[in-house]
Design a protein that fits this description.
Elements: E1 12-19, E2 29-31, E3 46-55, H1 65-68, E4 70-73, H2 87-105, E5 111-120, E6 135-136, H3 140-151, H4 155-159, E7 163-171, E8 182-185, E9 195-201, E10 207-213, E11 221-223, E12 232-239, E13 255-258, E14 273-281
Parallel strand pairs: 2-9, 3-11
Antiparallel strand pairs: 1-3, 4-12, 5-14, 6-10, 7-12, 7-14, 8-11, 8-13, 9-10
Length: about 280
């Protein structure tokens, strides 16, 4: 009789990879593809820390975008997209579902623009694998730049209202996620001094900005154990409301990373996932 793999759930302590602040006067950078001749891929100095990570399974509804910058959506209907291998098919079938999910679950949102997606595979030869360094996908600078890049003549008007960047993350495994889960730190626990802007340099000349994170014991880390395909994780990378005086939005940016779960062994299936990145406008 086949022996099933042991459950991968519960609170754990795991190694997470952080980034040191650059030397005074230096700008942190990373080339998205290969760097120009004579330059390094990046100038980021990484280090690891043993971090307690709370399993939020059973407490999913207690976390909100405005306080934590992450939110869990459950009981999502099966997607029309079955294979997640063809970009055009994903955009035709899955993108409309993501747009509806965001409009239904972010109060006051009235316009969505999905600007890209990334699929991560467990295959060692895959072009995109799970990222094991703590980061935030966007900053205030890059969020405003994204609005100008994608929204054309409407950009200036949209920037006068509330705008956000939210990633919609889901596993693609047929079974619950057993390895390399996603860890995320409540925005309310993240000190801005530990957020390191990083120039994100693309080969075609576009420079975005992401953020690396330095470790601080005050950070409160979480994960959702054994996540399934009918669950979605909303990861808020930026919320313009967080910049306003007297705001009730606590930071509006979630640091996150894949991590090696200490209960995962070779018998567990590798994690595969898709994240779709969205500009969310309103109210």
């Amino acid at each position: 009789m086949a022996i099933s793999a042991p459950a991968v759930r519960g609170n754990v302590t795991a190694k997470l990879n952080f980034t040191r602040h650059p030397a005074e006067g230096q700008v942190a950078f990373n080339y998205v593809d290969g760097p120009p001749a004579g330059e390094p891929q990046n100038n980021l100095v990484k280090y690891s820390e043993d971090v307690p990570i709370t399993d939020v399974r059973g407490h999913e509804s207690e976390y909100t975008l405005d306080r934590d910058a992450f939110q869990i959506i459950q009981d999502v209907p099966e997607s029309k997209e079955k294979e997640f291998v063809d970009d055009d098919s994903i955009k035709a079938n899955y993108y409309p579902e993501v747009e509806k999910l965001l409009l239904d679950n972010i109060p006051g949102s009235n316009r969505i623009f999905l600007f890209d997606h990334t699929i991560r595979r467990a295959d060692p030869n895959a072009s995109r694998k799970a990222v094991q360094t703590v980061h935030i996908d966007q900053t205030a600078y890059s969020a405003e730049k994204r609005v100008h890049k994608h929204m054309g003549d409407d950009a200036e008007k949209l920037l006068q209202g509330r705008y956000r960047i939210v990633n919609v993350w889901r596993p693609l495994n047929k079974k619950p996620v057993e390895s390399m889960p996603l860890g995320f730190a409540s925005s309310a626990s993240l000190d801005q001094k530990d957020v390191i802007p990083v120039e994100h340099r693309y080969p075609h000349g576009y420079n975005g900005q992401t953020a690396a994170i330095a470790y601080n014991p005050s950070q409160k880390w979480h994960y959702l154990s054994e996540m399934t395909g009918n669950e979605r994780l909303l990861l808020e990378c930026f919320d313009s409301e967080s910049l306003k005086e007297g705001t009730t939005v606590d930071g509006g940016r979630v640091a996150h990373t894949a991590f090696e779960h200490p209960l995962t062994g070779p018998e567990h299936e590798g994690r595969e996932s898709i994240e779709v990145r969205a500009l969310v406008f309103g109210p």
